[in-house]
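Notebook, p. 212. Picked up where the previous page left off. The plan for this session was modest: take the two constructs that came back from the sequencing core last week, fold each one, and keep the raw output in the notebook itself so nobody has to go hunting through shared drives later. Recording the first one now, exactly as returned: residue sequence, then the structure token string.
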Amino acid sequence: MTIDASELRRRTGELLDTHPPTGTDSLDFLRARFDAGLAWVHYPEGLGGLGAPRSLQAVVDAELEAAGAPDNDPRRIGIGLGMAAPTILKYGTEEQKQRYLRPLWTGEEVWCQLFSEPGAGSDLAALRTRAVREGEDWVVNGQKVWTSSAHIARWAILIARTDPDVPKHAGITYFLCDMTDPGVEVRPLRQITGEAEFNEVFLTDVRIPDSRRLGEVGDGWRVAQTTLNNERVAIGGMRLPREGGMIGPIATTWRERPELRTHDLHQRLLKLWVESEVSRLTAERLRQQLVAGQPGPEGAGMKLAFARLNQEISGLEVELSGEEGLLYDDWTMRRPELVDFTGRDAGYRYLRSKGNSIEGGTSEVLLNIVAERVLGLPSEPRTDKDVAWKDLAR
């Protein structure tokens, strides 16, 4: 059967008839939505989708929103939705897809990302966390850092070094790690905001069954590229309405507080408003390109723009607010479940946006990606390309 907009509206209507939002438990509704293929319609049948064009997801979302149906709190489970799921879909076995995708999408199981390390952030392929094969298990030892949501996560996507005798990009394998297993220790990292949404994770003799390996042994870098490309699209290409995101609060303040206005601030705000709208529309175009296949390096450009705009907008907002902009609501040490840019005050936005040019790939690294993979410029000299990882200078 051809799945078009009218067919999706019919199926959505059936879901609403059999599971009325007002009388159905939220989790039961989300499970039924997944089983009906209306979770992510472009995924295969049986995995929350119908094999329909990605662009038709908006049809389902609009019908369900109008009916007051619950959503899966996508900001809370963004790592699972935007990074783990597309990687599992592309490289996972059928058993892995069936096991992980449904509770991931419904939010029953939160995911985090165990990639960056204290000595392997921008140069991720230099990672030291080791995974050694012992029978049907891999024994993992190492440390990861800047791990969002590790304190609430059940599962993690993990890359570890399995062969130190080959060049650094070639000796990496990709795993799915149970965060409740013995040997996994999560410690909070308090940030400039006073909160600890990030964590460092210590792995001590953690045993991961080979059945939780994603992709082939030694092919983890290629698998990780799928994750990283999707991460950049998820961060920089999120769907927003006009004046959504960081530009919204400062535009509201400008309209409601005329006493704060100056000609110079007006000109700067207009410039950032236009750039935000251009970025929003470019993100929409990027999402439409995804209909034809996997995201490419273009997501790096969107993530670059996202970080720069957030930092410039939040700086202007603090300046516009005058003395009020120097206030900060609460320095209490908390471990939040999500980042809420628009639900907090200007001081929080200013401080938290400083991390936008680091998380999800530093702006410096993303500039290199855009230069080499989008513009086709010569790559930087790399003297370690053909050197075994164990022989690299440290």
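Okay, moving on. Second construct, recorded in the same format:
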Amino acid sequence: MSASLDAAQIRGLTQELLAAHPPATTGRTDFLEARFDAGLAWVHYPVGLGGLDAPRSLQPVVDAELAAAGAPDNDPRRIGIGLGMAAPTILGFGTDEQKQRFLRPLWVGEEVWCQLFSEPGAGSDLAALGTRAVRDDGGDWVVDGQKVWTSSAHVARWAILIARTDPDVPKHRGISYFICDMTDPGVEVRPLRQITGEAEFNEVFLTGVRIPDSRRLGPVGDGWKVAQTTLMNERVSIGGARIPREGGMIGTVAKTWRERPGLRTHDLHQRLLTLWVEAEVARLTGERLRQQLVAGQPGPEGSGMKLAFARLNQEISGLEVELLGDEGLLYGDWTMCRPELVDFTGRDAGYRYLRSKGNSIEGGTSEILLNIVAERVLGLPVEPRNDKDVAWKDLAR
């Protein structure tokens, strides 16, 4: 297969899949595996890795045909880190063996992934991370350190991990990128209870964790470059998800506005109109960004989408609480639990208001993303740095 494929051919291949594996009589996992093997998982990936070497723009053709036929999806919200971050990084930097081993079970949802990047002393300044990976005489890596704010760590089988392999060079140049088995000895996951009452995030302690060199992505010391692919894809997956007009949180508020006219005031009306327009602009900008992705990998523009996503979610959820008055102050359930995914639209207004506070932190803080947009999108002068040529071990901490 190649880029010469057109929509009609893709549609025909999808119909062949449905004929050979009718969704009504085929088990969910069997169907998803067959879809992957037919190259209809992500059509722009290479043949044999879930794709057809076809244009990315043809994926909606597949998705529409399968949705109309009632075919199961791979529960993308549950495996979002694997789909949006691990997969494109493995595709870009993994060996043939790594691609064959990890991409199929990742896409099918048999193996959940998490991200071991942020640390207590390296959140916004991720390159300052201190988790160490030291190579032993047998060639394996021994990892010691702590990671934090790790979504899905309590259910993940695999993790994408960055660790410091050379403390004697500047911080960006002494990092390597690994795939960590979360079931290995020395990996300890502890829940972090949040303002919502849930422990959706975790902290992860790594004590003498052994990682074979065969699970390293990219050259030793070049992990920051590999991580940039992960981070750019992360911001697109968070801020650039495809939603219909009036989808997401703005749709929830608009529905309440229409169904409960007694809650309306002139001031709330003006604010709702403004946020509705801004949400629609963000949605259309996201569509344009996805069209640009057809031509290649995501760039820094995704940071702008993630910025807009965080701000809008926080402002819309605040408006919703005010619109509901006393009812908006209620909170459904404060029971401690460890959910597998975030559900903004299926919960109450109080949950949305509290959970959205994290949107400006996760996936890159808004302050850092503003710098990225300023420097890499708008071309403004780079912020002065006094640690650029200083070895990591000599930095003040």
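Notes on construct two before I forget. The radius of gyration is 22 Å.
Flagging for discussion at group meeting.
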